[in-house]
Design a protein that fits this description.
Oligomer: heterodimer
Largest interface: A-B, 11 and 11 residues
Number of helices of chain A: 7
Bound molecules: NADP nicotinamide-adenine-dinucleotide phosphate
Order of helices and strands of chain B: HHHH
Strand order of the largest sheet of chain A: 3-2-1-4-5-6-7
CATH architecture of chain B: Orthogonal Bundle
Helix content of chain A: 25-40%
Number of strands of chain B: 0
Radius of gyration of chain B: 12 Å
CATH superfamily of chain A: NAD(P)-binding Rossmann-like Domain
Distance between the termini of chain B: 22 Å
Distance between the termini of chain A: 40 Å
Largest sheet of chain B: none
Amino acid sequence: MSPPLAGKLALVTGGGRGIGKAIALKLASQGADIIVNFFRHRETAEETAKDIEALGVKASVIRANVGNPAKIDEMFDIINRDFGRLDILINNAASGVGRPVMDVTVKAWDWTMDINAKAALLCAQRASKLMEGRGGKIISISSLGSSFVLPTYTVVGVSKAALEALTRYLAIELAPKNICVNTVAASAVETEALKFYIKEQLMPDTRQATPVGRMVIPEDIANVVAFLCSEEASMIRGQTVIVDGGTSIAPFVIPSKEKD
Amino acid sequence: MSVEEQVKDIVAKIVHVDKGVITREGTFKDIKADSLDIVQALVAVEDAFDIEIPDEEAQKFQSFGDFISYVEKQVTEKEKA
Ligand SMILES: NC(=O)c1ccc[n+]([C@@H]2O[C@H](COP(=O)([O-])OP(=O)(O)OC[C@H]3O[C@@H](n4cnc5c(N)ncnc54)[C@H](OP(=O)(O)O)[C@@H]3O)[C@@H](O)[C@H]2O)c1
């Protein structure tokens, strides 16, 4: 039996490292060819592409700052030229400036909203054209900061709320084209970004604090993304699926400690 | 205008400082640039010269001098190609 995503082509924005890398590898392990988009870390992205190829599928790497609409256009022009199609878009790239609400500047707002929210709209618009007549999946990565207040997470939280609302609008408008749109929202996931937040004391070190007794890891997110990319999930539309080990629904439960 | 002058112009505009305070010996820290200023300055310089400054390289810069030299090298290599 061929793997579930054999012959499919997926673009993962910010796919070079962190959660994006885990998603890229998961989709690759299910047979999809992968386009890894990156911005600042070329070497890392190229290493990820090698890891993807080792799984027996094709990988390519495209540099683009998704915060810049012209660069998004260039990226999709390349995809259109080289492949002429796309089956899966993962809006994973994100950036942000950690500041309390009263310290948010126009510059910090625009930077964060452009990369985390506007890019998802523009990528979805271009991607859906490449999915025309064949259907497709668009999955975005959000965080609990869209609905809950995390210290200094301000603009990122707002951008994620926009992303989740956009998911609903896209899901309905693209449903007749057989494009399935959803979001996966994570609590703190063990990545470089999280280490940075903890080091800068922008976030308490809750690394073991889920009712499950272990941290959410990038692969947990990747598994859910892969499910949403499968045909079994095709009646889930416009939803934000929370992957947090139960944290958000159990504010009064004392987290169990990871067993040594 | 030389590459050096152009880089200084871009950095000054983004960090909102007087161009005169940017010296080859100086650093982003000296001109009180925050992390967003730095990445935006790198991106603006990349776009202005149509070059790439990966983070792996940028992290090695000890001063604006290193930054400017890197840009000069990239621009020269581009012209040769
Ligand atoms: N880590 C967590 O705890 C957590 C929790 C909830 C949700 N999330 C979400 O999960 C996603 C991935 O997070 P992560 O923790 O893996 O992030 P990360 O380690 O900070 O990596 C960010 C990724 O986004 C890319 N990126 C950033 N700005 C970009 C731009 N302008 N254009 C293109 N790519 C850009 C980066 O590529 P370069 O390195 O090449 O620039 C990198 O691959 C994000 O949407 C994040 O909000 C993370």
